[in-house]
Amino acid sequence: MRRALSGILSAALVLGVGELLAAVVGPDSSPIVAVGSAAVDNTPAGVREWAIDTFGTSDKLALFIGMGVVIALLAAGAGILERARRPIGSALFVVLGVLGVLAAISRSGSGSIAALPTVVGVAVGILVLRSLVDRADPDASEGFSRRRFVMLAGISAAAAVATGAAGRVLGASTRAVTQDRNAFTVPVPDSPAPPVPAAADLRLPGLSPYVTSNAEFYRIDTALVVPRVNSQDWSLRIHGMVDNEMTLTLADLEQRVSIERMVTLTCVSNPIGGDLVGNATWTGYALKDILAEARPQAAADMVLSSSHDDFTAGTPLDVLMDGRDAMLAVAMNGEPLPIEHGYPARLVVPGLYGYVSATKWVTDLEVTKFSQARAYWTDRGWSERGPIKTACRIDTPVGSKDVQAGTVMIAGVAWAQHRGISRVEVRVDDGPWTETTLSDEYSRDTWRQWSYAWTATAGQHRVEARATDGTGEVQTDVRVDTVPDGASGYASMPVTVR
Ligand SMILES: Nc1nc2c(c(=O)[nH]1)N[C@H]1C(S)=C(S)[C@@H](COP(=O)(O)O)O[C@H]1N2
Ligand SMILES: [Mo]
């Protein structure tokens, strides 16, 4: 009996600790929510119908009660086994933990960090399981102390309840925003993005897909805890050197003409060969129209955008007004903005690095002057202006994997937003530059893929690539680091051919 109780209390602590950490990491990383959701997703249709027929709208509650019973039985078994055949009980915790981790990672868009609540929870659970079981038996080597066991069991139970409750309370705002986002309606664009022609995506093995999925899209920001902004509470204030100060809510935006555009975003911190670049379809509202309505004064030359979490970016006013598709975006690849990509609204400006333009969770636009205002990163040694440099990347082959002699596809992506890409060349071992095949151009604001069939001979080689932008300018071979205005230099890959 005490052994079984030891197992159940330890399991409760796993879930409590998991719940508490999930409040920070994200709601989908909670072991109980993740496993429950995985169970729902994998329930055969017949069973689901039966559950809905039987439990009606309480089907979710029934699921959690059912899960609780199963977990309690398994945990009781683990407690008994941990005594009889150590460490089988702990091993059972680990197996259940692995299931929880797999469920959490596959559900949440946040990658391996989603494993954290379950991993820490299971570690704590096993420690407590062992100390409880050691004290559960009259014949235990340390000697039986009923009082000791009761005390430890009481503390564990209290800790399980406290962590679980704290997790639920702390996680409430997160869950509220997740629900708010699930109910958010993506505007049907008045001006839709042209479809992606088949020949824009070469679909080669190892080559980045033309459109980057939301889950794969790089994420860069200064937020330790992702800002949770409810769409009902959100508004955008436009003020400063304007004749018509205004404040827009999402309801106001719904009355406006919406646009949908594909734009490639790039981070100034992206090193040569790095992956801080991604291409997505954005839906939102043209910034030039919003700003025109606010009527900027003649002396203004910068828009200082601020976010809910007090990040700031300074964007040249003329770039926002020159007719390119600078926008206030509310959707990414047809979905409401993912919370970590700025829900409910962010800026997207073709041609500029993110740190001077792509403010997520944006709430404020102050029209001002470069001579008067500083932004978050320009205050920390980065350049005031951030036009994107022409660059390319070799996606395949990768230096860490040897290739077979014969025909080897070299392929990658190239970008020079708002100037476009007109050519990509490769050379092997300082040989002559050879032109590659480019995927169809979608627009000047999006990257292009390129490929080249190389006849590879055995040995060590170095493959390099360089891009030419739409104005005919070849990217520079001068290698500079990312600070202060972005990396430059040819893409380069060591390749071993067997
Ligand atoms: N609020 C906020 N917005 C931000 C940032 C930030 O730190 N905070 N980082 C910027 C930077 S440096 C980049 S490169 C882009 C990245 O956008 P993504 O995370 O959606 O890819 O967001 C920009 N917007
Ligand atoms: Mo960035």
TrEMBL record:
Lineage of the organism: Bacteria, Bacillati, Actinomycetota, Actinomycetes, Mycobacteriales
Key word Membrane present: yes
Gene3D superfamilies for this protein: 2.60.40.650, Oxidoreductase, molybdopterin-binding domain
Transmembrane segments: 61-81, 88-105, 111-129, 149-171
Protein name: Sulfite oxidase
Primary enzyme class: oxidoreductase
Domain Oxidoreductase molybdopterin-binding per the UniProt entry, residue ranges: 225-372
Signal peptide: none
Xref: InterPro entries: Ig_E-set, OxRdtase_Mopterin-bd_dom, OxRdtase_Mopterin-bd_sf
Its EC number(s): 1.8.3.1
Domain of life: Bacteria
GO molecular function: sulfite oxidase activity
Keywords per UniProt: Membrane, Oxidoreductase, Transmembrane, Transmembrane helix
